[in-house]
Amino acid sequence: MSEQEMDPDWLVFHPEPRKPDFVLPAGAVDAHCHVFGPSPEFPFAPERKYTPCNAGKDKLFELRDYLGFTRNVIVQATCHGKDNRALADACRTAGDLARGVASVGADVGRGELVGMHEAGVRGVRFNFVKRLVDATPKEAFVEIADRVQEFDWSIVVYFEAADLEELEPFLVKLPGIVVVDHMGRPDVTKGVDHPDFERFVRLMAENENIWTKVTCPERLTAAGAPYDDVVPFCRTIVDRFEDRVLWGTDWPHPNMKSHMPDDGALVDYIPRIARTPRQQEKLLVSNPARLYWAEES
Ligand code: 0GY
User: Fold this and answer.
1) FRET pair for 188, CA 20 to 30 Å: which of 14, 85, 120, 273?
2) Which residues are catalytic?
3) C-beta neighbour count of 243 within 10 angstroms
4) Residues forming a β-bridge with 98
């Protein structure tokens, strides 16, 4: 199978991230990262909205070790659609050192779910970001959510802040633990006191099954590195909901067009948003362990 050519305006992941100054606690999990292909082995989906660079499992595991993480949670990226083979293969290779979050349709076979569970998949992702996917009817998501309860999988949701009001009635009815990617993508130029972010904070306050990833300052920033403008948003969430937060690199950083973050610098961002050893331990170790390695406890 031949290689699929990446989009011309795409940036490739940082070739030589620096060694972080922040020493990650033992057992730290990079709880939001992806694998792309490599496309000769795992072709990108025909319905994809972008064609990324190849960024396979070997590179991901190299980065994990280099930065000082112990484990990964690999999240299915939209460029692979509902074909979770690259994800499952990476999880199988890593064994206990990785878990996966897959994308499936309501018509997914039970045997397929069992196979994915055995590979290490522990969640499904529902994507509402219009530039990334064609819309899926909410009824289909409800059906998927019901079907994965048998496996105790959690649900990851990805949406933009402007869509929260419309999505809220659907989100609050989802069963099990629901993890919102990147704090629901706040518009950081509006400030933490803006009603949009207050709505998100309220959503978390009123629903104890809703968690979030305090991730992607490089995506949310308007000011650029070192992402000072995103810090107050992450701090607000970590300070209030320390038992329901996760952190991840987002390597290999899909759709970054203006700049590519240095993954070492991203790790050094962690102590700015989780300011005590207790918060850091929860964010990086015990929260992801509880959610994705539940059988250990
Ligand atoms: C992320 C963010 C993005 C892409 C995807 O699945 C994806 O394609 O998640 C994005 O473009 O904002 O979390 O990786």
Assistant:
1) 14
2) 250
3) 11
4) 72
